[in-house]
């Protein structure tokens, strides 16, 4: 877990970190890891389609407890808070979860929230 924390830390400070959530706001034009938008009542009208491209910034140093590392990030402009949890399991398995919270006015319609697992070309993912 320490080497995983160091890898995340490098990404925070401008190193060669690899994102676990693909974001359009970071000039990655593959399928985004978060797909959604905000609906906000605006008087007699309704404003739709806002906040479709969040840019999350890490709020604090990752917390490590046992085999679990938790990272908190947020986008104040979009009003979204993201918690990412990495957990080592018996047998060498790694579980990764994203938890998204709406912290702004209006409804955030979440169409998809996916983890990106960085693998080399010669590696495969078995689900």
UniProtKB/TrEMBL annotation:
Classify the source by domain of life.
Answer: Bacteria
What is the protein's name according to its record? CAZy families GH36 protein
Identify the species of origin.
uncultured Intrasporangium sp
